[in-house]
Amino acid sequence: MSGVREAVVLGTASMAPTRHRAHNSVAVRWDDQLILFDPGEGTQRGCTLAGVSVAKATAICITHFHGDHCLGLPGVIQRRSHESASGPSPLPDLPIVHPADGAQYLDRLRHASIYHDTSNVVPVGVTAPGIVCDLGRHSLRAEPLEHRDTTYGYRIDEPDGLRVDADALAHHGISGRDVGRLLDDGVVETPNGTVSREQVTTPRLGQSLAFVMDTVPCDGARALAAGVDLLIMESTYLHAEVELAQRYKHTTARQAAELAADVGARRLLLTHFSARYPDSAVFAEEASRHHADVVAADELAVVEVPLRR
User: In whole angstroms, what is the distance from residue 103 CA to residue 23 CA?
Assistant: First the structure.
């Protein structure tokens, strides 16, 4: 693993923004990648307040085309075009991953007003579960969720790697450039004989992050969340309103925590809160009864992806 891996919360509101909550929106810093998830209204200003450069975005992921998950997109695209005037020309391609059957909405959002478009947007329509694109050396996977309209959740996966055992290297007398040769070639010759890569390394699982919004608990949500280091998941309601959550195809804080615990998600970040709950702490309180590591998102909070030891 290398670089910074964290979620920057740009907004936490569900259907309507409030005095203290912008529409739900999250920026993920992942090594050299900057991925914007569900840029709701207020995303551009949230980026400014959080110190997130819109021009450096490397991908945008939209779970579905309800307004609270995409109405900030025009500003983000236009800001990227504006900032490109003082940056490298042309900008790198910007994939916008979205449900393919909502392509008409993406087109309307891209062309919502007059501007000189130099954003180099590349629409990536999702039609089925699976890997949808690469983010550097990492993969972006989509799975269908269960909401009122076509909705996909997303997961970033780092490839599995190897952890070098310093004591094993010292035992075999391997140091300096020989370490790199051993890792690259698989073997190295030493005065005491041949040493293989397997003798000085152990497997290291790659890190992962999942983004699950606007859904009831479902197989797709479980697949995305399985074993992730950070699960960013909606909890629109407390469990006392579970019937309301079911009616509108949303998840409660308790359901999100139970799902995270069942599939081994290490840290749970809750967001997308109904305006009926002015204090987000109640979501953490409910979810913490069912999962050991819960964060209820606040505006502009920065939540780290837990390290793997």
Answer: 21
| Residue 2 structure tokens | 């290398």
Contact between 271 and 250 (Cβ < 8 Å): no
- The answer to whether residues 102 and 145 touch, using CB atoms and an 8 Å cutoff, is no
Catalytic residue among 38, 68, 214, 229: 68
Domain count across the chain: 2
Please return the burial class of 115, using the count of CB atoms within 10 Å of its CB with bins 0-12, 13-18 and 19+: middle
Is residue 68 part of the annotated active site? The answer reads: yes
Predicted model pTM: 0.90
Instruction: Determine, yes or no, domain membership for 132.
Output: yes
Q: Give percent of the chain above pLDDT 90.
A: 76
In a domain, 309, yes or no: no
Domain range for 98: 5-159+209-304
> Distance (Å, rounded) from C-alpha 150 to C-alpha 193?
60
pLDDT value for 289: 98
Asked if 154 and 37 count as a contact pair (C-beta separation under 8 A), the reply is yes
